[in-house]
Structure formats: structure tokens, C-alpha cells
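Catalogue entry: protein

Sequence with per-residue C-alpha cells
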Amino acid sequence: TGDLAAQYIVAHEYGHHVQDLTGALRSADRDTGPQGGQVRLELQADCYAGLWVRNALATGYVEDLTRQDVADALDAAAAVGDDRIQEKVQGRVTPESWTHGSAEQRRSWFVRGIEGSGPRSCDTFSGRV
């Protein structure tokens, strides 16, 4: 796994810290499923991780990012999608029990953060995710 993939994981967890500071962790519903509150929290943390990548590039903290670096980070995000984990462990996918979102949702929100302009780009609590 590349450096950016490892940094994505740390930035995602830091995103949860930001959610704690903003009150999102306390106020979010704890329902499961592809549109549930737990999934929305995880996707927002993925988006915040993307914002971190964007800012790390802008400030020079991360330099010379290659397409492979980005692909590795996106693969890391997708690998922890509920659909992939359930398929591997259970042999079937049960979306109603999701707590982290699908591989595609996780990739999509991570990219949204990279392409976003700030925390408002990461509003997973309005509309469908």
C-alpha cells in the first residue's frame, strides 16, 4: 500500500475527530443501511480525508502525487466498503446492515473531498449518499 493510502486511513480517523468537535457524532442517527446515519458519518469522514489530501497538496506537505498513489488510496477506501467485506466474509451482501457504506460510496465521497472547496463539500446529511 502506498503512502497516500496509509495517510487516507489516518485522515479518515481524524475526520471522526472533526465530527466529534462539530457535534456530528452526537447528533447523527445510528440507523444502518446505505442511507443510514452511521454510513453518512463514515462517508463524511472519507470526504474529510479527501479534503486533507487537497490541502496537503496545496501546502506542499504532499508532493509529486502520481496516478498510482491516488489509485492506491481509492483502493484503500473501496476495500473497506461494507459490500466488499460482506461478500468476502458472508458470501452475500446485505445492504440493510451496512455501517460504513459501499465501496463506490466510499470512493465517491473521498474524491468529493479531494475536489471540494471545504467542509461544506462534505455534507452527507442532506439528500442521498
Notes: Helices lie at 3-22, 24-27, 37-59, 67-79, 82-90, 103-115. The mean pLDDT is 94. The CA atoms of residues 8 and 115 lie 15 Å apart. The radius of gyration is 14 Å.
